[in-house]
Design a protein that fits this description.
Blueprint (H helix, E strand, L loop, with lengths): L1 H19 L14 H10 L11 H12 L6 H9 L4 H9 L19 H9 L8 H8 L4 H13 L6 H8 L4 H17 L4 H13 L14 H8 L5 H4 L12 H10 L6 H13 L3 H13 L5 H10 L8 H21 L5 H7 L10 H26 L6 H11 L2 H12 L10 H9 L3 H16 L4 H11 L8
Helix pairs in contact: 3-4, 5-6, 7-8, 8-9, 8-10, 10-12, 11-12, 12-14, 14-16, 15-16, 16-17, 16-18, 17-18, 18-25, 19-20, 20-21, 20-24, 20-25, 21-22, 22-24
């Protein structure tokens, strides 16, 4: 009888849990992917009694669940809120040799980090000098993933004590590890976690890398971008030197992009020397960056070069690759023309003026917002994503906007996609549009997928057309 009662109580508890598991604040299954929303969700579901009353054994259990999971789980935010109380349990993870091994890849898993990597992600926030031996162990590991994790965290929270180890990782033979240091520095600058006393050493480290071949890098975490983001005036002379702004420098194009983006005026003699070197040894990427640098630096020949590039026509016998190269050069020239007109980021500027429904925008800016939205949505997830999201509410206006900027081919493709919903097109009410999409037959779904491919294969360069349209409607940006 007692056994039956215990079993019934357990069964009742399981049923109650299942009934309430999906009724958490904000609905876990419906939560958006952004870090801010995830953080809000996990913070709202922390226990009401307060974390500071938890026992050491309970904290160890949370640490154990956290280091054996992947992603920013609820346990991650619990440990962040526990603060220094979580340190002993997290350090225990670093002492266990088995925790330095990465788990076997899971089907569909994007991240498979070792328990040590998970623990160090939180511990690095506390600037503990006692962690240096563990960082050194990670930095000397043959597994470059461990070295990469150490590089990111040391760069994110640099201290005078860890700078020598950081320099070793920055010189690692594996590009991925060097990029980890740069990504860490990027986070440190953005979140202001870099102490003033290490900035000079970090600057010297970045300057030393300005001529290294670091492979592909994101523009916001390359050495030049980080130096400019630090706001250190002593970083400008190396960036503008003839050794760095040289056609032989593999980073020259990226450095020019960063200087132009930050509105740094480049000496005319540097630009002329680069232009001369391109005549002897063509470099497509450097050529595109150079035309934007001409515009941002106010070079007297800037407009002449820009208009000549935009007026160029492909030869009748030009190959597809040659046509694509010309298209990219003209896109760079259109961006340079906007820089010259004082609107270096017309899409971003138009979106910043948007009130959500585009009511307060001048018509040219409305067209820019609508075209940038439809192209971004379809390129990211096809017409299904476009009509699923709120941007699909204004599909009819987007057709007119595409025609206005000159993308008539893409306007016709969008019109065909809308016709699949019937003579009246898709509903402007998102929920109703979802129901309409669910009622598609198999042939309708196949036709929409075919229109996705038609959009991708269409030869119209939306980015080029948007910049040309923006430069011809410069006055519209002065409103508001």
């Amino acid at each position: 009888m007692v056994t039956l009662l215990i079993f019934s109580a357990l069964l009742l508890g399981v049923l109650v849990y299942l009934a309430t598991a999906n009724k958490s604040p904000a609905g876990f299954r419906e939560i958006v992917a952004s870090g801010k929303e995830r953080r809000r969700f996990f913070e709202n579901t922390l226990p009401a009694e307060g974390l500071q009353t938890w026992s050491e054994w309970r904290i160890r259990g949370i640490v154990r669940r956290y280091v054996t999971s992947q992603g920013q789980t609820r346990e991650f935010w619990q440990l962040i809120h526990l603060g220094e109380r979580a340190i002993p349990a997290l350090v225990r993870v670093l002492r266990n040799e088995r925790n330095y091994r990465r788990p076997a890849p899971r089907p569909g898993g994007l991240f498979n980090r070792s328990p040590v990597e998970r623990a160090i992600e939180i511990l690095s926030r506390f600037h503990l000098p006692d962690l240096t031996p563990y960082y050194r162990k990670m930095a000397s590991s043959p597994d470059y993933h461990l070295r990469y994790s150490a590089a990111v965290q040391l760069g994110h929270y640099p201290t005078p004590e860890t700078l020598p180890l950081l320099a070793e990782l920055f010189a690692d033979s594996e590009e991925h590890v060097t990029h980890g240091v740069l990504i860490g520095f990027h986070h440190a600058i953005r979140e202001q976690t870099m102490p003033p006393r290490v900035k000079a050493a970090v600057r010297d480290l970045l300057v030393s890398a300005l001529r290294r071949d670091l492979g592909f890098m994101l523009s916001d975490s390359c050495p030049a971008a980080l130096l400019l983001a630090m706001g250190d005036p002593e970083a400008l002379p190396p960036l503008l030197s003839s050794e760095v702004l040289s056609a032989q420098n593999p980073q020259a194009a990226l450095i020019l992009e960063c200087l132009a983006k930050n509105k740094v005026s480049i000496p005319r003699e540097r630009l002329d020397a680069l232009l001369l070197s391109l005549q002897n040894k063509p470099d497509e990427q450097l050529d595109e960056a150079l035309i934007k640098a001409f515009a941002s630096s106010g070079h007297p020949d800037a407009e002449t070069r820009i208009l000549a590039s935009l007026a160029a026509k492909p030869d009748a016998a030009a190959t597809d690759d040659e046509r694509k190269r010309l298209d990219r050069r003209q896109e760079a020239a259109a961006e340079a023309l906007c820089i010259l007109r004082g609107i270096p980021d017309p899409v971003g500027l138009a979106c910043s003026k948007c009130d959500g429904e585009n009511r307060s925008l001048p018509l040219p800016l409305t067209h820019i917002v609508l075209v940038s939205e439809v192209d971004a949505e379809i390129c990211n997830g096809g017409f299904d994503q476009y009509f699923f999201n709120c941007s699909g509410d204004q599909a009819d206006k987007a057709v007119h906007a595409l025609r206005a900027v000159g993308a008539t081919g893409k306007a016709e493709i969008l019109r065909q996609a809308m016709s699949l919903f019937g003579p009246r097109g898709p509903s402007k009410i998102r929920e109703q549009r979802h129901l309409e999409r669910e009622r598609f037959s198999a042939p309708q779904a196949q036709e929409m997928a075919a229109l996705d491919n038609a959009w991708y294969e269409d030869g119209e360069n939306v980015r080029l057309l948007l910049h040309l349209y923006a430069s011809s409607h410069r006055r519209a940006f002065d409103v508001g």
